[in-house]
Design goal:
175 residues, mainly beta, Immunoglobulin-like, nine-stranded antiparallel sheet, five-stranded antiparallel sheet, 0% helix, globular
């Protein structure tokens, strides 16, 4: 199990939140847990949808994301998971190139909420997209929307002068 802490894109902002988690790979199974802790009342958190489904543009409000790539090769996958239960996945042939929908079935994930924490738990079968046991480069990210409508961008690393979750230099977690 590998643990991590996400960093806000701008360290100059005073954020009342902390994002941390853990990830693990066992054969074709990928497990991710990301916990948001702090003043949740200051955030826009989408309410659970009665019938969650595949949706685009989830990153326009509070959303957790995960980027997965083989260590060798340019292709990668993006997974967007909303506290509403909506989700989306994409496959890219290279940096922001050749975007297409990926994963035919919804990933198995859930959000649990307490007074000062929101936790995502994801279990993903990688067999349809990647050989079993192949090492992964991972970027765990989040977009948080404040009640004032301001978005903050969180990732394992921010290697560019602008927030860019697709930047492979940000895929720093190895599982």
């Amino acid at each position: 199990m590998t643990t991590f802490t996400l960093q806000p894109f701008s360290s100059l902002d005073n954020h009342p939140w902390r994002l941390e988690g853990r990830a693990e790979r066992n054969g074709s199974r990928f497990f991710l847990e990301t916990a948001l802790r702090g003043d949740l009342e200051s955030l826009v958190i989408p309410a659970p949808a009665p019938q969650p489904r595949r949706r685009d543009n989830l990153w326009e409000t509070t959303c957790f994301e995960c980027f997965l790539a083989p260590l060798d090769g340019a292709e990668y996958w993006e997974l967007n998971l909303s506290p509403s239960g909506h989700w989306q996945s994409y496959r890219f042939a290279d940096y922001r190139q050749g975007r297409e929908l990926a994963l035919d079935l919804a990933p198995v994930f859930q959000f649990s909420r307490e007074a000062r924490s929101l936790t995502l738990t994801l279990t993903l079968d990688l067999a349809p997209i990647m050989p079993s046991g192949a090492p992964l480069a991972v970027n765990v990210t989040a977009v948080l929307e404040s009640q004032e409508g301001v978005l903050s961008y969180w990732a394992l690393a921010h290697p560019r002068p602008e927030a860019d979750f697709h930047c492979r230099e940000g895929f720093v977690l190895r599982v």
